Amino acid sequence: MRDAGCVMDRRDFVARLSAAALVAAGVDPSRIPHPPSRIEKIGLELYTVRDLMKNDVEGTLAKVAAIGYREVEFAGYFNHPPAEIRAMIDRHGLTAPAGHVPFEAIAQGWDQVIDAAHTVGNRYVVVAWIPEPQRRDLDGWKRVGETLTRAGEACHNAGLTFAFHNHSYEFVPLGGQLPYDVLLAATDPALVKLEMDLFWITFGGQDPLAYFAKYPGRFPLVHVKDMTAKPRPDIPADSVMRDVGKGSIDWKRIFARSEQAGIRHYFVEHDSPGDALASSRASYEYLKRLEF
Known about the structure:
Elements (H helix, E strand, L loop, with lengths): L9 H15 L17 E4 L4 H6 L1 H11 L3 E4 L7 H10 L3 E7 L8 H11 L3 E4 L10 H20 L3 E5 L13 H8 L5 E6 H6 L4 H7 L6 E4 L1 E2 L13 E2 L8 H5 L2 H4 L3 E4 L7 H14 L3
Parallel strand pairs: 1-2, 1-10, 2-3, 3-4, 4-5, 5-6, 6-7, 7-10
Antiparallel strand pairs: 8-9
């Protein structure tokens, strides 16, 4: 079965019928080509347009929807209550399947986080940053894993799914290990899913496909942003980040493994775009046409 985030059109349907006939005739399924897939609903991480959101939340959401986005991921509500945010996205034909919340809220305010998620319509609650004092050594990362598992259990009990979003510091060796590996080993895979930022793992020198293979089905969410090849190891991230399709990341290679990874939601992001709406539009147009 193909990934639920990809659309089946008439051509795909006919191709699948043909494939089924070949299987019935005894042809090895591995030798039958699959029809190409596309992303059905392309999402936007609203951190991309945060400067616009500071001044006009609903107006920015309207412009995002006009580009063609149907899903958004919030990184803060800019002093609007969750009920107002829900009304805004409803008015503009958007849904918000996921939202980012601070790590500190796990210890204080997690009930409010869960209540807000239900109001806005989130299915995933995502922590995207671990404070530096919590990640100075491997024992710290193990404690972070225990904390994330507790948060995941609370989300599960409330009918939600908890996820962790990476940057690149998780892929800087510490004590002979990668903190990301330590974190994943320290968390309950049934309670802690992963939102893989495909730029940051690439920037950190790792291959997302290796993690898809090692932890299949654990990556329901991804952040999609591109990068040029780093001319040297110490180059800053902002200087190599690009709109999707304008860099060196092989998106067909990655998204061809969407089913293995478990990807259900694809959120475009750019941390520091020159023109946030133009960047969002360029990435959307590329992904809209991409077949894999």
